[in-house]
Design goal:
Layout: H1 16-19, H2 31-36, H3 38-57, H4 59-68, H5 74-84, H6 96-110, H7 127-139
Helix pairs in contact: 3-7, 4-5
């Protein structure tokens, strides 16, 4: 917006990405899939975590990939990358207080009474993310550059 002149005299007052942590991207799997094919879930989570780590480690590769897949404004992609990349999780999880806030905000948007908001542990399950992160760290895995 700034580059196109549409921002005008507006100024950012607060960066909500720094103030509120929410799950704006997530992976969901049914209890049945987890029970029947846990290795598939494990491999999928591990692959996603590797991808996220590569994105965070390589701005240039990320921008080039997005340019190859339909986006056409490298400068805009770079600006968005600089905004979003720091908020990406390193381990595929989010803090428990952020989980509770996320649920409270979504419940409010849905008009759900506060006493009907489920506890985070019944909604978020980071077993596979924790295991994948630990495994990658113990193996010393690093994104290829």
């Amino acid at each position: 917006m700034r580059r196109s002149g549409k921002l005008g005299a507006l100024h950012q007052i607060v960066d909500l990405r720094q103030e509120i942590t929410m799950a704006y991207n997530a992976l969901a799997a049914s209890d049945a899939l987890i029970a029947e094919k846990p290795d598939l879930v494990r491999r999928m989570v591990r692959a996603i975590l590797k991808g996220v780590r590569h994105v965070k480690a390589s701005r240039g590769d990320t921008i080039a990939t997005l340019l190859r897949h339909g986006l056409n404004d490298g400068e805009a992609i770079g600006l968005e990358y600089d905004i979003i990349a720091p908020s990406l999780t390193d381990n595929g999880t989010m803090p428990q207080d952020a989980q509770a806030l996320d649920l409270a905000l979504r419940a409010d948007m849905l008009g759900l009474a506060k006493d009907r908001v489920p506890p985070p542990a019944t909604v978020f399950d980071f077993r596979f993310a924790n295991a994948a992160s630990t495994s990658l760290d113990q193996a010393g895995w690093q994104p290829k550059r």
